[in-house]
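Tokens as discussed.
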């Protein structure tokens, strides 16, 4: 996804090495061993009475499991899409792969290696021209529906203001491992912040460091930070966006994907999203999780 716009491929453990070899095997030989998952254009979806939409696993505030139900912004958008098309929703929930190319291959184009299960629509795809070119003939990226950006949350009772990251030369800051935020902090200002970084293996690991008061600041996407503030109403959590010189990318549009020969389904889904935006229901979905709806950037 662009849960991780960049992701390191450095492998330092035996388990990770095996994983990398397996991934290489799939990349080289999977196309020859496994046929493509069947495309389901709009007519087939309507005839079957259901559609399958992919959302990421453990991806707060967009999609995660709570009390046996998949909840979150993208999960609710998926339900609204299915309702708009008058079909039953079947959610396909999987962890993020090494990169978004792999996610598109597994969840839209090929399906998984064993069951060949793929989705009709994939949510939370970075709408990026280079990715669009790489995915050409396999998947179609369409309909940016939200603008994602990197920001910083901090405890206003501990840190009065944050105008630059120089504040964190002497104060710790939490971040999810191998994310845009992690890469930025690791290399920013000639490595002066390196000793201040407190990494969580997952986003929620980083959140716990912040919520427990162990670390007074957290860097992630603005939507994630707004959700953290929303779930901690008694905390004086402030959100800022200090200058980030050298960051690989501080904002990007989020869209969707369908298989190359399911363009008509993509058009129909796009019409539903347009309607949701016009009647305010899309904005209400984001607000339900404490997130301000943000239009996708045009550049």
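Sequence:
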């Amino acid at each position: 996804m662009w849960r991780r716009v960049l992701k390191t491929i450095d492998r330092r453990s035996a388990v990770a090495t095996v994983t990398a070899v397996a991934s290489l095997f799939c990349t080289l030989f999977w196309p020859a061993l496994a046929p493509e998952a069947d495309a389901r254009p709009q007519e087939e979806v309507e005839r079957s009475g259901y559609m399958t939409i992919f959302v990421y696993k453990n991806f707060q505030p967009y999609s995660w499991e709570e009390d046996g139900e998949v909840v979150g912004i993208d999960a609710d958008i998926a339900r609204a899409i299915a309702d708009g098309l008058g079909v039953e929703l079947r959610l396909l929930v999987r962890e993020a792969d090494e990169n978004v190319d792999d996610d598109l291959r597994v969840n839209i184009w090929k399906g998984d290696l064993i069951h060949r299960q793929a989705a009709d629509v994939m949510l939370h795809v970075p709408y990026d021209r280079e990715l669009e070119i790489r995915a050409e003939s396999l998947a179609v990226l369409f309909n940016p529906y939200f603008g994602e950006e990197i920001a910083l949350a901090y405890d206003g009772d501990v840190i009065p203001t944050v105008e630059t990251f120089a504040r964190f030369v002497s104060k710790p800051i939490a971040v999810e491992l191998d994310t845009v935020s992690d890469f930025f902090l690791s290399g920013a200002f000639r490595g002066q912040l390196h000793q201040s970084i407190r990494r969580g293996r997952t986003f929620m690991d980083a959140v716990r460091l912040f919520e427990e008061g162990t670390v007074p600041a957290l860097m992630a996407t603005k939507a994630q930070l707004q959700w953290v503030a929303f779930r901690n109403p008694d905390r004086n959590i402030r959100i800022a966006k200090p200058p980030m010189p050298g960051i690989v990318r501080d904002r990007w549009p989020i869209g969707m994907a369908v298989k190359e020969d399911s363009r008509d389904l993509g058009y129909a889904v796009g019409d539903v999203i347009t309607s949701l935006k016009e009647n305010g229901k899309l904005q209400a979905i984001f607000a339900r999780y404490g997130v301000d709806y943000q239009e996708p950037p045009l550049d």
